[in-house]
Amino acid sequence: MSTNVLESIDVEVPVSTAYNQWTQFESFPRFMGGVERIEQLDETRTHWVTKIAGVQREFDAEITEQHPDERVAWKAVSGPQQGGAVTFHRLDDKHTRVTLQLDFEPEGLVEKAGDALGIVGKQAKGDLGRFKEFIESRGAEEGAWRGDVDRSPQRGEMPPPPA
């Protein structure tokens, strides 16, 4: 049974600053609890090492869709079944709403118990709060990757017509 988490937070930085910082995956351990290390393997693939509630996992994730200042979506390509998306909504020139959606399949007794207690939702909310503190205290992003990755069609879905 899949679990979905949806959390949002408003940050006091322009949309491009929030988006640019989010593309710096190797900085995630500085504001995401349970993320020990992320290595950027290439433009669309990352390797994650996490430890949450005593359960350590390693997995590779692939960016499945990315549009500057709008959205980054990903899915695990190894390890536990999981994926998600973060969207960036310009509220005004100095404020952005960051919305995080996670979809995952809890494995084993510890993860299923944690899921029943809403641990991942609480973790996501805390991570967004720490992201807010991190980016607002800096006032600027550490770097940026502004590449565009189009969502690949699902099996049986027709690709969009050429422009």
Secondary structure tally: strands: 7
Rg result? 16 Å
Secondary structure: helix percent: 10-25%
Arithmetic mean of pLDDT: 87
Overall CATH architecture of the domain at 3-25 and 64-138: 2-Layer Sandwich
Count of runs of 4 or more consecutive helical residues = 3
Shape: globular
Q: What gap, in angstroms, lies between the N and C termini?
A: 39 Å
CATH fold call of the domain at 3-25 and 64-138: Alpha-D-Glucose-1,6-Bisphosphate, Chain A, domain 4
Query: What is the SS-derived class?
Result: alpha+beta
Unreliable residue runs: 155-163
Report the biggest beta sheet as strand number plus sense, adding barrel if it closes: 7 strands, antiparallel
Instruction: Name the helix and strand elements from N-terminus to C-terminus, one letter apiece.
Output: EHEEEEEEHH
CATH-level-4 superfamily name of the domain at 3-25 and 64-138: START domain
